[in-house]
Write the structure tokens for this entry.
Amino acid sequence: MRTLRRVGRLFLLVASSVVYCAGVQVVAWFLPSEAQIRFRARCQQYGSRWLCRVMGIRRSVDPAIAEVRADLIVSNHIGALDALVLSATRPVTLVANAGLRAWPVVGWVARQMGVLFVERGRARNVGALIDAMHDRMAAGVPVVAFPEGTTTHGETVRPFKSGVFLSVAGREDARVLPVYLWLADAAGGDASESSTVAAWAGGERSFAAYGWTLLGLRHATMQVRAGRPLPTNCMGRKALAKRAHVTVRALFETYAGASSTNS
């Protein structure tokens, strides 16, 4: 039964994504630059909601994440569901590792949705990324980034890298929204009993194996909570990264502690 669920979901995900993104690309060709950015972000939101439905992903999201004005949204990172859940909440532009761009189907879909790619460890590419982030913000589309720079099993929040904070550092009119997300349950079981079910932290487990696991879940619930928006005026990128990390870490200690106590 689980294999049938996986195969059926995989076919539906690939087929619907290809058809949907092809339509998005056709329409986007006729739009001016800023309108195209907003159009792709809105289409990504609708598409992400559909993918969540197909995969049985339930979302419990702090309303502030959709309502608060923010230029940059930063979060901890446990796996592929993070980007899916956050982009289903509001129109955003995602920042992803450049390696994703070359993946069959997935990379093409990401490009059609306007995902920005970052090549970690290449300082000369940071300027182009920051310029692209500014374009999205100017169009009224927040940018979502995962500044830990890697995934974890959700057992901690690693220090934030400061690169993406260059896009808002020192700006009087900008806001950073720190958020914390976690896996509340998977396949009907408590997430604390199998913390790696929907989390991917590399190691010996390939991303393909991780994806196959996701496709086999009956359902999973992701919860997302927001901290207070952070003003960025008079703050450098490193100070912003540290302050955002402290906020997300505090959310982690609040909600992860409550979750483990209740279980």
User: Anything to note?
Assistant: The mean pLDDT is 88. The chain has one domain: 2-262. Strands lie at 57-61, 72-75, 93-97, 116-118, 143-145, 175-186, 189-190, 220-226, 230-231. Helices lie at 2-28, 33-55, 64-67, 80-89, 106-112, 126-138, 207-216, 237-262.
